[in-house]
Amino acid sequence: MNRWRPPWEIQAALNAGLAVVQHKKKPRQAKVGPATSDADELYAVVRGELQFYDGRRWTHAPPRAAAWFPRRKLYGIRPAPGSAGPVQVVSIRFRARKDFAPGLPRGAVRLPAPWWRRFLELESRCDFDDKGQRVLLAAEIESFLERLARAVAPAQARGQGRAGEADP
User: Fold this and answer.
1) From the CB of residue 89, how many other CB atoms can be counted at a distance below 10 Å?
2) 111: pLDDT strictly greater than 80
3) Phi, psi of 125, rounded to the nearest 5 degrees
4) pTM higher than 0.90 for the full model?
């Protein structure tokens, strides 16, 4: 099984409690695994049609879809079959606290407009570390995912299968 290990620059940021934010714009950059990672990862699709592998199956991930993949769990990302257009993915790697389990469903979650705006606002708050990487506090990503999970739970219970509009 493949395992992604962060290079030393990313490793240093993860150890400092930071999340590293990267943009991937080429279809080959949007191919991962199935593999495991030494970091927790949040992927958000900005442009293109992708598929996410959640350890059991591949699910469709259209634009404005996001997925959280916990470390050391099998996951994958690939362009959707038949999709030849450009892709753009925001990848956020971080180390969550040991008890972190936001309760999000497996696979891609299509974010409604208010949640997509919240995600873009979160990403816009990035700063640069001394290595030139775009970073956020890992706690900010955890907080975003926990709030998102609380919004997703009522929609999942009603069988809608996507994030609700409310932010408790």
Assistant:
1) 21
2) yes
3) -85, 5
4) no
Question: How does pLDDT run across 44-92, given as a tens digit for each residue?
Answer: 988 888 888 887 888 888 889 998 989 888 888 888 887 767 778 888 9
Distance CA 2, CA 74 (A): 9
Q: How far apart are CA 167 and CA 106, in angstroms?
A: 20
Taking a C-beta distance cutoff of 8 angstroms, is the pair 149, 100 a contact?
Answer: no
Quote the strand ranges of the chain, DSSP E.
2-4, 18-24, 32-37, 40-47, 50-53, 58-61, 65-69, 75-79, 88-94, 109-110, 127-128, 134-137
Q: Please give the Cα distance from 159 to 138 (Å, whole number).
A: 31
Residue 68: which residues within 8 A CB-CB, separation 6 or more?
Answer: 40, 41, 42, 102, 104, 145
> What letters, b where the CB count within 10 A reaches 16 and e where it falls short, cover 91-116?
bbbbbbeeebebebbbbbbbbeeebb
